[in-house]
Amino acid sequence: MSSVPVPAARKVPVLKLALVAVVLAAGAGLLLRGVGLAQLVAWFDQFVAFIRDMGPWVFFAAMALLPAVGAPLSAFNLVAGEAFAQRLTMPGVIVAVAVMIALNLALTYWLARYALRPLLTRLVAHYGYAVPRIDAKNALTASLLVRLTPGPPFFFQSYLLGLAEVPFRLYMIVSWLAVLPLALSVVLLGKAAREGSLGKIFAVLGLMVVAVVAVQILRRRVAKREA
User: Fold this and answer.
1) Helix axes of 90-110 and 73-88: crossing angle, nearest 10 degrees
2) Do residue 49 and residue 73 come from a single domain?
3) Structural domain of residue 208, as residue ranges?
4) 46 and 59 share a domain?
5) In which region does residue 11 sit, left (phi positive, over 0), alpha (psi from -120 to 50) or beta (all else)?
6) DSSP-derived 3-state class of residue 196
7) How many independent structural domains does the chain possess?
8) Max intra-chain CA distance, the chain
9) How far apart are CA 181 and CA 188, in angstroms?
């Protein structure tokens, strides 16, 4: 009886990716040292003015679409308040950000589970892995662990859960609630930082620390229960 050969697993180039990250971080540090904080603030103001001139419809549409292909969600969160609080009010910006995050989550799930599934499956197999499958018994636990584990990018987590065929409703609820606190904190932090209000900055940073600690406590409890 013949056996089907199993392809050898290819290692993901973690060291190369880490080296690139270190080089980029070093470059950013040298840029900050050479340019100066005042110039960076001026560039930030110019960038925010450019975003503001595009209008909220273009900005928030891009926020719903681009993180699905790897654009950092935090970059949108950081400038949203400063760019559009005057036009939409800060509560309006927060509502818009929350809605765009939900739309992005739905889009990424559809891409991972349906539209790009053949391509992603081949990519996973290329590195010698199998597409994960999650059943109804552990779907909630697995979703919480994926969303609450620090490190993996936002879009990567979404693709992983979509490929694993987590039920859509559970995926949306867990993902939205897990992502929203930190995302809205970054929105408030960007606005407070540009205003130069130390009181607001420290208040937002305090909320972010509380959120991170709470998330890690929840993650440990979930992992302990699963074990």
Assistant:
1) 140
2) no
3) 55-226
4) no
5) beta
6) coil
7) 2
8) 74
9) 11
**Angle value at C-alpha 132, between 62 and 145, nearest 5 degrees:** 70
Q: Which of 77, 101, 115 is nearest to 175 (CA)?
A: 101
Distance CA 203, CA 179 (A): 19
pLDDT tens for the chain, residues 1 to 227: 444 444 444 554 555 655 666 666 666 555 556 555 565 566 667 778 888 898 999 999 999 999 999 999 989 998 999 899 999 999 999 999 999 999 999 999 999 999 999 888 888 777 777 777 787 778 888 888 888 887 788 899 999 999 989 999 999 999 998 899 889 888 988 877 776 666 766 766 676 676 666 666 766 666 566 55
Together in a domain, 133 and 87: yes
Residue 77's alpha-carbon distances to 17, 109, 116, 178, 188, in angstroms, are 25, 21, 27, 15, 9
pTM of the predicted structure, to 2 decimals: 0.74
Locate 28 and state its tokens: 């950013």
Whether 8 is covered by a domain: the verdict is: no
